[in-house]
Amino acid sequence: MPLMEISVVPVGRESGSFSDVIREICMTVEEHGMKYQLTPTATVIEGDVEPLLRLAGDIHRRSFRKGVDRVVTALTIDDRNDEPMEMDTQVSKVRGDAGR
């Protein structure tokens, strides 16, 4: 299953904190019924490519609800045809290879 990493940065806020925007992102992903993992700098989401792209648009638009005039959104999509891929499996493989 494809993975999308999305990072959203509101620009021009008085405060350097934007945890409220991140909460909005998590709520949006949950409303779409997709599995996700929050990281310190981005959110990784599992899903088919087309729904992921629609979700990215929703996340970007909803970020403006927090009273900002500019939002920078960066996406990375990791998709494989040779074998299935899930977040949990990818993380487990790395941890296993690292001897943890």
TrEMBL record:
TM ranges: none
InterPro entries in UniProt: MTH1187/YkoF-like (IPR029756), Thiamine_BP (IPR002767), UPF0045_domain (IPR051614)
Pfam family name, one: Thiamine_BP
GO cellular component: a single term: cytosol
Residue ranges of domain Thiamine-binding protein in the record: 4-95
Organism superkingdom: Bacteria
PANTHER family listed in its UniProt record: UPF0045 PROTEIN ECM15
Family: Belongs to the UPF0045 family.
Protein name per the record: Thiamine-binding protein domain-containing protein
Organism of provenance: Marinithermofilum abyssi
